[in-house]
Specification:
One of its GO terms (molecular function) is DNA-binding transcription factor activity. It comes from Streptomyces resistomycificus. With 350 residues, the chain is an alpha+beta fold. It has two domains: 227 residues, Alpha-Beta Complex (H-NOX domain), CATH 3.90.1520; 101 residues, Arc Repressor Mutant, subunit A (Orthogonal Bundle), CATH 1.10.10.60. The protein is 49% helix and 9% strand. The protein is built from 17 helices and seven strands. Strand 5, helix 9 and strand 6 form a beta-alpha-beta unit. Helix 1 packs across helix 2, helix 11 packs across helix 14 and helix 14 crosses helix 17. The longest helix is centred in the C-terminal third of the chain and has 19 residues. The protein is globular.
């Protein structure tokens, strides 16, 4: 299986609120999350990532299973700025909405390198109107994920405008209508068009000069310094990106430096240099991901050790046995019987 751009990571906070939403309509939110390898702790963890493909799958399958064609809109409606992680402080303390949008456009990769937001000319050519185009790198992006993403952009603009309407002219979506048209209009408060070339919000051009209410210049400058220092010359830490991609790939294809470098638009040597600057190596990241997944699969599932070895991209069960002894100073069978991580060991630390 070849890597795809939807294997790029997105922060797990994208699924914030899904469990509560499913439970509210009579399902079991925790069981749903567990079926995809998530739990509330992982979603709440600010620096936890999953592949965009997996998050899209969760949204699409949940929408079908529980007959929620407006799931993306429902998810967006319950989010606040802080779903964007480190971006939130800079945006909510921007001087103008235009400055906040510029910040989001520049640093949205901190939330996910698979997403982008760009100011454009009005797609319909109306004077005094501009477009905010939201795109994902996927060739066939998930409709629910697009509704969710463009819905968050609308939600953030509303919050930046004092939790009040900001003059949205219309919404353009690249897929057929998923829910009742009234659901879209109720959420956006404007006309929504479907089967368009791309997803975009059409907003008045003067919106960008509107002050952000309650912003603090000092906090904004501190937040921007933080973003520039930590992310100005790279995306999220390269080792985190590689780990998030590997976590979805080990069972279908073994760890391949060249494939992952190509996915990240890097030469393999450039990827190796980036990892070296972070004090690790590609093989070190592979080992960390395998260690984390092995602990979870051994202690939380009934899979055979040969199945676990295969899911970790190992050729033989004996490779798993040797690795577990190195990681945890015990055997896979003893680790499973104890059901607890051996004292002094951590599956998530190098």
């Amino acid at each position: 299986m070849s890597l795809r751009d939807t294997d790029l990571p997105v922060r797990c906070s994208a699924l914030q609120g899904l469990s509560a939403l499913v439970t509210e309509i009579g399902g079991s939110g925790p069981e749903l999350l567990a079926a995809y390898g998530f739990d509330e702790a992982r979603i709440a963890e600010g620096n936890s990532f999953a592949s965009l493909r997996l998050v899209e799958r969760v949204l699409e399958e949940t929408a079908r299973r529980f007959a929620l064609p407006d799931l993306g809109l429902r998810m967006a409606a319950q989010q606040d700025l802080h779903v964007l992680g480190p971006l939130a402080i800079a945006m909510e303390n921007s001087r103008t909405i235009g400055e906040a949008v510029e910040c989001a456009s520049r640093y949205l990769f901190v939330y996910s390198p698979a997403l982008s937001l760009k100011e454009t000319d009005d797609p319909l050519g109306s004077p005094g109107v501009v477009g905010l185009r939201y795109t994902t790198t996927g060739i066939s992006a998930s409709p629910q994920a697009i509704d969710y993403g463009i819905g968050i952009v609308h939600r953030v603009l509303t919050l930046l405008h004092g939790d009040a309407p900001y003059g949205l002219r219309s919404v353009l979506l690249p897929h057929p209508r998923l829910a009742q048209e009234s659901s879209y209009r109720a959420y956006f408060g404007a006309e929504v068009r479907f089967d368009c070339p791309s997803a975009a919000l059409r907003v008045p051009s003067h919106l960008f000069s509107t002050p952000v209410r309650g912003g603090d210049d000092l906090l904004h400058d501190i937040a921007m310094d933080h973003l520039e220092t930590h992310f100005g010359h790279q995306h999220v830490p390269m080792s985190d990106l590689v780990a998030a991609i590997l976590s979805e790939q080990l069972g279908s294809s073994g760890p391949d430096l060249s494939k992952i470098a190509r996915l990240l638009s890097l030469h393999p040597r450039s990827l190796q240099r980036s990892l070296s600057k972070e004090g690790t190596t590609f093989s070190g990241v592979v080992d960390r991901v395998r260690r984390s997944q092995a602990l979870d699969l051994i202690t939380r599932t009934d899979l055979s050790f040969s199945q676990i070895a295969a899911s970790l991209g190992m050729q033989e069960q004996s490779s798993l046995t040797r690795a577990v002894r190195r990681w945890f100073d015990t055997s896979p069978s003893r680790l499973r019987r104890e059901g607890l991580e051996p004292k002094g060991q951590s599956a998530l630390t190098d």
